Request: fold
Amino acid sequence: MVLGVLGSGSGSNMQAILDAIDAGSLDARVALVLSDCPGAWILERARQRGIEAGVIDCRGFRTKFPEEAQVETAVRLKDAGVEFVCLAGFLRLVKRPLLDAFPGRILNIHPALLPAFPGLESWKQALDAGVAETGCTVHLVDEGMDTGPILLQERVPVLPGDSPESLHARIQAAEHRLYPAALTYLSARSGNGS
Ligand code: GRF
Reply:
């Protein structure tokens, strides 16, 4: 499985994917890492591993992922031989040009049990809602925000006295198990590496 990763932040989920590859539990290779934030730590993590890393030029838009930038991103991913694209904390909505380039082959990780709590800061949404349990989800990406077919989920308890930070940390620990597991599952389902 040749992977491309798009992220805007720290890249701890990409690190979990790399760790699973190193441990031999995931038969994959990360060929390219791209970020819309030039200073994102995910780019530094990639460079330190000798993985090609680059910045997506979003033409000065703060939150939009402009069409030209999506086309460029698709071309760069294809040129790198990428088969599956992992969104890992990527904060822009992916639309048609990129979706069409990788039909059914773009994944996202979300810090809640979708369809509950889509959007930003889902762990805060869960605390505010007073639920006893939340979790994380790996799903295929479609044109909606945090919609698309669910591949795997892991439940995470909300504990008495949890702060947004403590709950988020517990969810992230689950994410780091779930993303590699979802890729292994997808690889088997698609006949990759078999
Ligand atoms: C994760 O919590 C993920 O669920 C959300 O963004 C965060 C990214 O974290 N989509 P990281 O950059 O992988 O550390």
DSSP finds six helices and seven strands in the chain. The longest strand covers residues 133-140. The domain at 2-190 is CATH 3.40.50.170 (Rossmann fold). The radius of gyration is 16 Å.
